[in-house]
Amino acid sequence: MKILVCISKTPDTTAKIAFTDNNTKFASDGVQWIINPYDEWYALVRAIELKEAAADTVIHLITVATADSEPIIRKALALGGDEAIRVNADSHDSFYIASQIAAIAKEGAYDIIFTGKETIDYNGSSIAGMVAELLDMPYISLATKFDIAGTEATINREIEGGEETDKVALPVVVSCQKGVAEQRIPNMKGIMGARTKPLKVVEPAAVEALTSITSFDLPPAKAGVKLISADTPEELVRLLHDEAKVI
Amino acid sequence: MSVLIFIDQADGQIKKSSLEAAAYGAKVAEQSGTSAEAIVLGNITDDLTSLGKYGIKKVHTVKDSKLNSLDAQLFTKVIAQAATTTGATVIVLSNNFAGKSVAPRLSVKLKAGLVSGAIALPDTTKGFVVKKSVFSGKAFANIAINTPIKIISLSPNSYSFTAGTGSAEVADFAATIDAPKVQVTATNKVTGEIPLSEAELVVSGGRGLKGPENWGIVLDLAKALGAATACSRPVADADWRPHHEHVGQTGLAIAPNLYIAIGISGAIQHLAGVNRSKVIVVINKDPEAPFFKAADYGIVGDAFEVVPKITAAVKKLKGI
Ligand SMILES: Cc1cc2nc3c(=O)[nH]c(=O)nc-3n(C[C@H](O)[C@H](O)[C@H](O)COP(=O)(O)OP(=O)(O)OC[C@H]3O[C@@H](n4cnc5c(N)ncnc54)[C@H](O)[C@@H]3O)c2cc1C
Ligand SMILES: Nc1ncnc2c1ncn2[C@@H]1O[C@H](COP(=O)(O)O)[C@@H](O)[C@H]1O
Questions:
Q1: pLDDT at residue A108, rounded to an integer
Q2: Which domains does chain A have, with CATH numbers?
Q3: Which band of pLDDT confidence, cut at 50, 70 and 90, is reported for residue B313?
Q4: Which of A133, B99, B116, B231 is the most exposed place for a label (fewest CB within 10 A)?
Q5: Residue A149 at interface with chain B, using a CB cutoff of 8 Å
Q6: Domain coordinates of chain B in residue numbers?
Q7: What architecture (CATH level 2) is domain B2-172?
Q8: A226 neighbors B301 (Cβ within 8 angstroms)
Q9: For testing contact with chain B, the best of A13, A142, A211, A231 (most B CBs within 10 A)
Q10: pTM over 0.90
Q11: pLDDT tens digits, B174-205
């Protein structure tokens, strides 16, 4: 079994969000980068669990990013990947990134390609579906449970107000969220081992981006909270009805 | 030329998020002087001519039971055929669960740039620029789509619309349909309740409620308002509430008209899922709770005393 896990880096969830260059660039100075939580906690950990259950499983990690993301990919290796591939490119166009991943995936003939549900910075939720279409593979989005028996996967995915269970033959692309696995913390052995695991750097394939970010805006500041006394909660209901007009 | 809107359904009924996509798509068509057409897959019980009320001129239906449940690969092929036949230059979908599966595939298939989770109409004064929320609601990005065909998936509850009058023409669309690769073996969802992702009013509880046995006050208020219920992550992690109610950075991101947070501190990761709500009400006994900074209305007080009184006032207002 060969599994490819897509790893991206994002600013820490508490990072201050600001922009430079006339609001066209994210101000990354001093920002702490982390592995995108969905990729680390769910996609990667589920791959590791599958390897623990079937020792002949091979896990490759892929990231499309510049060299400054190497600490992130080393951490992912410390958690459990066998080797990593970094496509040396910097892009926020989902089609561009997906095309790079698909090019590598085509070579590797993977049975399962795992991604996170979405990146918590650009919130595209698009890469996995694009990779699947580029490879002509089925895609199950927002999985909450993933199991395999032989060459068939049974996957629960989120739908409006609940879940559905899908069965699909491998190979498959799956985007992972909460439920698929439980977060793990890398141990010392993993961290030491990660230093010598292969991290291959490849140059990107020539692909044209389909979109471009023209600018960023920050949301308008809130006017400030209107406090209502705990003795007169009915006043809140009146305000929601008469003033905010939401009920 | 046309704007093509993908209308998705559950159990034969059109989803509300798709009606919103229809109204949005019709507006985009009006902006660009073309007509809005819709594609509906699978067997539908709803009256499709009524899509005319949202500005749709023509509805293409593919009534094949293979399309009753989602197979993103299959759906993409059929929608792409409809896009080609109708000469669509813009394709609109809701960024709901089906939309998230289909839109990226369609983008590749048609070599059409995608903005997922749009929150406003495109700005066509200079190119074709679509606004979406990024950094988990902490900022917006304006994204130019640079391809001849454009795809927009609309974030649910971002576009306000009302039903007008009008009736859409409905016609069968002959499509090539492959064998599905995905087999749906079970669905498990709450029935008779408003799905959180589509709800306009949401009442949410956090660890301040102390335990699942105390959820009655949340449910009563939600029922009186006709609201969906949500919760913070530790509450779902502790199995006090089902996982699909978890909102925030790692849960569902919602944008209801009203979000009432009861006993939730307002951690940045929680706010990430709810900060696009139009009106936020916070009920917390700690006046220093960070959530008050993000709130429109607040009550500093004990939820167990305050919430039942709010429920009573709502009932009185509604005469129930
Ligand atoms: C990477 C990452 C991702 C995360 N993702 C999410 C996410 O998606 N969603 C999420 O919710 N959290 C998320 N978290 C966790 C988040 O940081 C907070 O820990 C969590 O939101 C706190 O939940 P809470 O507000 O219910 O509980 P607490 O922080 O314990 O707050 C309870 C609140 O209840 C109040 N209270 C107590 N008793 C009463 C009473 N009787 N009446 C009224 N108020 C009372 C208290 O004053 C307090 O403010 C994430 C964390 C990380 C690190
Ligand atoms: N630059 C990247 N390199 C590798 N994988 C990525 C990259 N960007 C996104 N992904 C993967 O795709 C998932 C969804 O990202 P997105 O579609 O951008 O929200 C992430 O959770 C990652 O698993």
A1: 95
A2: 2-216 (3.40.50.620)
A3: very high
A4: A133
A5: no
A6: 2-172, 196-318
A7: 3-Layer(aba) Sandwich (3.40)
A8: no
A9: A211
A10: yes
A11: 999 999 999 999 999 877 778 898 899 999 99
